[in-house]
Design goal:
Layout (H helix, E strand, L loop, with lengths): L4 H12 L5 H14 L7 H15 L3 E5 L5 H7 L7 E6 L2 H14 L5 E5 L2 H4 L3 H5 L4 E6 L6 H10 L3 E9 L2 H5 L1 H9 L3 E9 L6 E9 L2
Parallel strand pairs: 1-2, 1-4, 2-3, 4-5
Antiparallel strand pairs: 5-7, 6-7
Helix pairs in contact: 1-2, 1-5, 2-4, 2-5, 3-4
Bound molecules: the ligand O=C(NCc1cccc(CNc2ccc3[nH]ncc3c2)c1)c1cc(-c2ccc(F)cc2)cc(O)c1O and magnesium ion.
C-alpha cells in the first residue's frame, strides 16, 4: 500500500525487522534496497566504515545532516554510549515523517533529536536551542552542494573543536568536488579518503574523514 518509496521502506522494516533491534532495522532496509528498490541510504558497505569511525570517535554529541529515512541515524545511534546524543537534520517533511517511525521502531529515539528544516538555518541555532558547546562528530549526507557552506558555517558558529571528526558521504558519487578541495587544501583539516562503493551498487564511491585541527 505504501505510496512513496520511503513508506514502502518503512513497511519493509515493520514486516521484516524486530522492534527494538536496530541491527534488524537497517538490515531489513538493506535487503529491501538491494533486492527490491534502490534508495540513497549510506548502505551496508559504507555503513561498516561509518561504524568503525564512530566507534573510534565515540562521540558524546553528534550531528547528522540529511536524515532521509533514518538508516544512518539508526546505525549511528545504536553505537552511541549511554547519555550521548545525535541531532539529525532533515529538510524534507515526508522523509522526516518516515524517519521518525523507523527511528522509533529501532528503539533509539531517546538518543536522537530529529530537527526539520534547512541546515543553513538550523546550524546557527544549535547552541541556543540544544545547549551545545561543540560537536564531536558530524556526518554529512545532505545536498552535496551544501557540504562546503555548512562546514564553513559550523566553523564560524564555533561548533567545531580541535579533534572534531567530519565524515562526508558521496564524495565520488554523486560527488562533492568542492568539498574535497576545501578539506584537502585547508591547513585546518587532516583528511583521509575511505574508498568504497555506492550503496547497493558496483560504482565507486567513498567517505572522506576530516579531523578539524582548531
Ligand atoms: O543527493 C543525495 N542525498 C541528499 C539528498 C537528496 C535528495 C533529497 C534530500 C533531502 N534531504 C535534505 C536536503 C537538504 C538538507 N539541508 N539540511 C538537511 C537536508 C536534508 C537529500 C544522495 C544521492 C545519491 C545518488 C543518487 C543517484 C545516483 F545515481 C547515485 C547516487 C546517493 C547518496 O548516498 C546520496 O546521499
Ligand atoms: Mg549519501
Amino acid at each position: 500500500t505504501g505510496s512513496t518509496q520511503p513508506q514502502r521502506m518503512l513497511e519493509a522494516v515493520q514486516k521484516n525487522a524486530t522492534k527494538g533491534d536496530p541491527e534488524s532495522v537497517f538490515s531489513a532496509i538493506d535487503y529491501y534496497c538491494r533486492h527490491k528498490e534502490w534508495a540513497m541510504n549510506v548502505g551496508d558497505e559504507k555503513g561498516l566504515i561509518l561504524d568503525s569511525v564512530l566507534t573510534e570517535v565515540n562521540p558524546s554529541i553528534a550531528l547528522e545532516l540529511g536524515t532521509y529515512c533514518g538508516y544512518s541515524t539508526v546505525r549511528i545511534a545504536r553505537l552511541l554510549s549511554p547519555g550521548s546524543k545525535l541531532i539529525t537534520v532533515e529538510f524534507n517533511p515526508a522523509f522526516a515523517a518516515v524517519a521518525r517511525q523507523i527511528i522509533a521502531y529501532a528503539g533509539v529515539q531517546d538518543k536522537v533529536t530529529l530537527v526539520e528544516g534547512p541546515s543553513g538555518d538550523l546550524i546557527p541555532k544549535m547552541k541556543e536551542r540544544f545547549g551545545i558547546k561543540s560537536f564531536d562528530f558530524v556526518f554529512l549526507d545532505h545536498w552535496k552542494d551544501r557540504y562546503v557552506p555548512d562546514t564553513k558555517l559550523l566553523e564560524d558558529c564555533g561548533l567545531l573543536r580541535k579533534g572534531t571528526v567530519l565524515l562526508a558521504d558521496n564524495v565520488i558519487c554523486p560527488g562533492a568536488p568542492e568539498y574535497l578541495k576545501y578539506v584537502r587544501n585547508s591547513p585546518r583539516y587532516e583528511s583521509r579518503y575511505f574508498k568504497s562503493n555506492l550503496e547497493y551498487s558496483k560504482v565507486e564511491d567513498g567517505l572522506e574523514k576530516s579531523v578539524f585541527l582548531g
